[in-house]
């Protein structure tokens, strides 16, 4: 676990100790591979976003989680902290997950792009194309039971189709061997709180799917 992630927990959860889980022999290779991948991302200069980033943003959460959440790209606070979904959108995401009984240990979070687009503009096709192999490798290494894509860009990236978000919701798709669902991005919900009920309904479907998978 990176120091930045550790610090994030300490800062946001108000804990002053950290309990290290015993290593799972079966997961040694993915953990090592994830570390290598994170290092590769940290030095990436494939697209112009490397010139304006403060740092790359790889992931937060549990790399053995059954649920992987994928967002669009780092914003201002993510770029500063080096972690995805922090700031107000991150706080809302944490609340949303808590509403279905999921904590930090139950999710693994990453973005389609690992570097912040200037002024939080939309990701460009070429940037997504240059960065996509990193996320694809992350998905393969995490091997979640389910991916929840948050927002239009993440949903369209996984589906490889340009479809409006409202049409992406309420279905289960496949990304390779991994099923995925699509719901609203927390940043959108901050601007459009009326859709929080629909987002909650989506999360209940996520929970239902994972419970059924566990049986
Ligand atoms: Fe590399 Fe992705 Fe960052 Fe572009 S956004 S520089 S491809 S890590």
Please explain how this structure is put together:
The structure is a single chain. The model is unreliable at 1-29 (pLDDT under 50). Helix 2 packs antiparallel against helix 5. The protein is α/β, with parallel strands linked by helices and 215 residues long. Helices cover 47% and strands 12% of the residues. Strands 1-3-2-4-6-5 form a six-stranded mixed sheet, with helices on both faces. The longest helix is centred in the last third of the chain and has 19 residues, at 196-214. It is built from nine helices and six strands; from the N terminus they run H-H-E-E-H-H-E-H-E-H-H-E-E-H-H. The structure holds iron/sulfur cluster. The site of iron/sulfur cluster has 14 residues, from helix 5.
How large a portion of the residues is in β-strands, by DSSP E?
5-15%
Number of helices: 9
Question: How many E strands?
Answer: 6
Structural class: alpha/beta
Keywords:
single chain; 215 residues; alpha/beta; 9 helices; binds iron/sulfur cluster
Please provide a brief summary of the model:
The protein is of the alpha/beta class and 215 residues long.
